[in-house]
Batch of 2 targets.
Target 1
Amino acid sequence: MKTVLMVAEKPSLAQSIAKILSRGSIRAWGLCSSHSSLEQPSPRFSSPGSMSSHKGLNGTCSVHEYTGTFAGQPVHFKMTSVCGHVMTLDFLGKYNKWDKVDPAELFSQAPTEKKEANPKLNMVKFLQVEGRGCDYIVLWLDCDKEGENICFEVLDAVLPVMNQAHGGEKTVFRARFSSITDTDICNAMARLGEPDHNEALSVDARQELDLRIGCAFTRFQTKYFQGKYGNLDSSLISFGPCQTPTLGFCVERHDKIQSFKPETYWVLQAKVHCPFSVHAGSFQVLLSSFFLQVNTDKDRSLLLDWDRVRVFDREIAQMFLNMTKLEKEAQVEATSRKEKAKQRPLALNTVEMLRVASSSLGMGPQHAMQTAERLYTQGYISYPRTETTHYPENFDLKGPLRQQANHPAWADTVKRLLAEGINRPRKGHDAGDHPPITPMRSATEAELGSEAWRLYEYITRHFIATVSYDCKYLQSSISFRIGPEHFTCTGKTVISPGFTEIMPWQSVPLEENLPTCQKGDTFPVSEVKMLEKQTSPPDYLTEAELITLMEKHGIGTDASIPVHINNICQRNYVVVESGRRLKPTNLGIVLVHGYYKIDAELVLPTIRSAVEKQLNLIAQGKADYRQVLGHTLDIFKRKFHYFVDSIAGMDELMEVSFSPLAATGKPLSRCGKCHRFMKYIQAKPSRLHCSHCDETYTLPQNGTIKLYKELRCPLDDFELVLWSSGSRGKSYPLCPYCSNHPPFRDMKKGMGCNECTHPTCQHSLSMLGIGQCVECENGVLVLDPTSGPKWKVACNKCNVVAHCFENAHRVRVSADTCSACEAALLDVDFNKAKSPLPGDETQHTGCVFCDPIFQELVELKHAASCHPMHRGGPGRRQGRGRARGRRPAGKPSARRPKDKMSALAAYFV
DNA sequence: GCAAGGTC
């Protein structure tokens, strides 16, 4: 029997499609074969309706197997999936060395290669294992350009291991579907086509453009500005065709706020006195108790709005005030009553969910997406990444609704809807990807936890609202004349709340009801006054507004919008303020203003859509892939060179906001070359800067630095500093020069003296090292000479710390080694009063691992946390040192070498 | 260390 391999874009889809095709086969076969207008002869298929599933070798993708017919023959079907893109584009390794490659080379010279997108998933191997020996392949990837591109990634992996076709028989098929419904999937199976190479090529072009342009600009501006300003708190200044315009939106709003000049204006406000009587009508019963209370209040005054709204000249306002003030009565000129409707929402898609999550639930897009994904994988909601706001025609709306009928939060509403009949959902947009986001089963807050619950509650309420009725309300208004001036008063009364019952935050605000009156009626004026007000600036952009702008300009996709927003936060270009408003930082502002100054297209949202237009030509087969790519790269290469030549313009802006390196930081350690003080710059990346030599020395991050007793490195004369990760962590001395320019072959950048193999320096590993770490492979336990009186021995690779010999007044690493485990012996002196040693001893030399006296004085921990090893009973203590302290044969010894000179010579070869 | 796009 021949085998048909089928591949979907994600595991969940493989399962749904396999279920449909394996069970619905007989009906589907009938349906499919009844189509007479097939564009091409399509392989017919059927299956007896049972399917078996197993996990693939990567543990993530499943394989669903069943038998059926295909191309008129009995076959074995294997349905599986990838996890998004199989491959990713990157430069060849040597072009990823920032110091060695001129970013300009990234536009053309630097070759790119496709790498596995997620090596852990082992996707190519997995596809080959499953594809080996298959005869046909049907590609069920999402029906968009990215999906088309993944088709070819799958084919590249699988075709070489599949059986060879006989006599030009077609073996590669593409299924095109627009929803995951029985009809659609069966139709797709009945009308298999071919993957579209042009669409795939347009994605290849997009990938290459994004990579080359993004990396070139990012590397250039990072290298240019990094280390130039002391208080520029960013080690990466990135640029990207999506993230930069996203930042641009935030800065644009900031500029509007900055340039805003408040203007004073004046408003007339009138109050009339009216005996209260409301229209009688059936809607009254629906009004809230608030209204009924108002109704009992017989006399009240009515606030009128001025038809001129406002004037910007005080004297003119005063004139109008004077004229109206003379009048004692307001005359009704017209009345109107209109029934209006507030529409029920469209079915929920991803961006709308993210907007509401941000604006109403205070949940950032990235977080909201993660929460939604968890709800999805746990089966509470449908697939959360979709652009579609239209339920498929045969979508079962009542099923999910019934599941909610006993939910304590909305049982009443749902039961009434089911009893009285649901409303037809509004016609939304069908993007052909996934159905809108809906609840899949009932859940409670206790079950989900408060965060996930809030999102689930919103999704469910939104779903119920889409099958509810519009909210109907009555808008009435009365036009008045007071002297020469006209005033109006409006009121809204809810006729039927419709969907706002389940989405109360959308309710028509309760407004006072208006009195019944007719044209010509008069009301006594109780007050006319003039109010002075000021126009106010807009506020910073909310995340929700930003999402709307990005969607409108085609910046990013439903899945990547949260990533871009997260990026500009993490890169320190904007900060999220209260109300989830995005306030650009100085860095963000300077960058955008810099782009505006040099080449505004770099930050305008139009650039992405212009490129996309070109890419679409490739997809439609109207333009040549190579030509478009070459042409676009050429344009950006020119832009890049112009940007490089004009960078001083951006630098001028930087100078205003940031202070030069030489003017920042506090003097800390002395430079070994000029013997002047260097300055310690705390802003990330923290570093030392010698303004005389104009050299910068990076320091280890995430810790504090102080001077180390003015001790100097014997190799370069730089003053040592002491790095510490905190009182419960570890610390070690460090030479700023050696750490940046490793003196020995076996040392790497960033290392401290505790890893230095200098054979005689008193701060080195050679002198302070004790023995192999008890936990990690390559680490050595090193005495921390500054840690007394709470002495510590810490691993120079991992975070193992041993606390030992508390209150000893001196601890030294001896030249002798333990005969049992080869660890260096420690020489410990205690004060007479505090000595824990037996008898009246104050001094003891021994091995920390093997000496029974020392074993009682050593406590193993992890830096800043308690170590699990220490939880055991007393019995394990004995064996610990003996077994683990021993250095394996062949490993470099941390002991003091016997022949210092020969060892020294070896290092300097 | 960099982009944006899939998805987990």
Note: The longest strand of chain A covers residues 329-342.
Target 2
Amino acid sequence: VDPQLWHACAGSQVQVPQVGSSVIYFPQGHAEHAASPPEFPLGFSSSTIACRVLSVKFLADRETDEVYARIALHPENSTPKPSSMFDPPSPPQSLNPTKIASFAKTLTQSDANNGGGFSVPRYCAETIFPRLDYSEDPPVQIVLAKDVHGNVWKFRHIYRGTPRRHLLTTGWSNFVNQKKLVAGDAIVFLRSGSGELCVGVRRSTKGMGGMDLATPWHQLSSV
Amino acid sequence: VDPQLWHACAGSQVQVPQVGSSVIYFPQGHAEHAASPPEFPLGFSSSTIACRVLSVKFLADRETDEVYARIALHPENSTPKPSSMFDPPSPPQSLNPTKIASFAKTLTQSDANNGGGFSVPRYCAETIFPRLDYSEDPPVQIVLAKDVHGNVWKFRHIYRGTPRRHLLTTGWSNFVNQKKLVAGDAIVFLRSGSGELCVGVRRSTKGMGGMDLATPWHQLSSV
DNA sequence: TTGTCGGCCGATCGCCGACAA
DNA sequence: TTGTCGGCGATCGGCCGACAA
């Protein structure tokens, strides 16, 4: 997976350590997520393990497009630091000195509703999408966007309505269905260095803390 | 899976040995089908192994509904018979002294075509399905049928047209889509001892030996 | 600026009898 | 008896501007 698109999908909160840097590995957190908790040999039972990053792979789930990283670690024989000591994360990778244009939008009901299109925020259309020919009436174009797997998706991009707004129509509902997107999920558009348009997905955390997206807040009775 | 429905889906060609009976196990055939060929310990390298049947489980694939059996064997310490000697299969299970009414039909193009219904052979409608009230005009009823997983499917059964014929309409195309049936696959209806209607699926062998089901034979040019 | 709605039009679904194999 | 076809009515998908938040 292209690291730029990967980071755009993961969000700015997510930082990945550089290869060769030192990190502290928390086996407890790993074990809690593993299906079959690993048994650590004696000497590994300390709550933290100082490690060096051997390799980092940027990956995406084949089914859900969710991005994740596989990080190979090797323990260092230095004495483990006390766990109460805070270890600042390695400085984020500044591989991309050129700022990459990207834009994320959380899908509204209307975006996710079947039979609807996608309302493109003006900023996204003007800075990420290929430039429209505004001399047409209405201005229309076909935009192609690559997802994390390299698959290309085709959308009809039109600028219409009163007042004028940018919309994705034909091709959008197919994308929503194939990716199984629902209101609350986010979509990421990104223009790579080579000028190529990419599209990613960031799924909402399950249940959104019980938030009911089907009912507008102003229709909720105060309890 | 209900053994009656299992046998109806498997077809009359398929016989399963009884628990406790003696069979000859052909490791070669097993190994050829296994993803990772098992390595037999020394002493098991003979081409046939006399075994006793410990248990038989009637199962169905969760995805395709295809039926199969898991048979547990234990080798007997009698000397293996020479492989050239033919071993007649154990007599088929006669657990069901009461003859079970069942009917299988290979799906035609019209049956499998989207937007179509299912043409029910008269014999099937009259002996397997619940009796229609022929005083209605046209006679209609809702029939419920359980598949191998115990899921219930709902069909509208109507007797109409000139000349009159039995059809499944509403509910049929949903069934075809969910089960991913195509022309050439077969469907099995069965009335269990308790009077319950069951439905099973028998998929056509892949490609049907290259038979082109899309072209009627009378449209084929002789070569 | 953009989220939601109702209108509307075309495509598809699916039920039907006619007809013939 | 039953497989295939064309028809046609109902439903649905999906594009649109109006309107308001």
Note: Chain A has five helices and ten strands.
